[in-house]
Amino acid sequence: MAKKIVIVALLFLCPLAVQAQAAERIYCASSDKAVDMSLESGFSSRDQEKLVHFRGMAGVKDPAAPREFRRFQINSEMLRQYWIDGRDLRFSIQTFTPPSQPVYRVTMSMRTERSDATATRFNGDYELKVEKLKGGSTVGADVLVSHSAAIFCDIKRR
Asked: Distance of CA 56 to CAs 1, 73, 75, 76, Å?
């Protein structure tokens, strides 16, 4: 009887132990002459391709950028696309300011890869654009800043 109780108890506790062990956070950072940026993303412990949260900070140093983008928060609402598989990690974000009647747009695409599926470091690059929208439309725009540089990301397991 005691053996059955131990087995049943272990069956209930095993999913909890696996869940805590598999959770992953990925931290990305870049600092260069045009941009300072740090990103944090968390992926589900059950489905490691499911994004749980996405946030960060960025600052565009280029004088052509509007002051609203000199320092701004990045959140999951800005995330347009993400991709993670064995070797690749990609994000694409977009935001407008002011939110109610957009005049400016920032887009950033990041592409990284790692040497193999077990490595904890991703290396790659990002492309950033700051644009002034034409006539209140989000379709046409004049590019104020266009910049690409290296970025790295590290996996932190709990």
From this structure: 53, 6, 7, 9
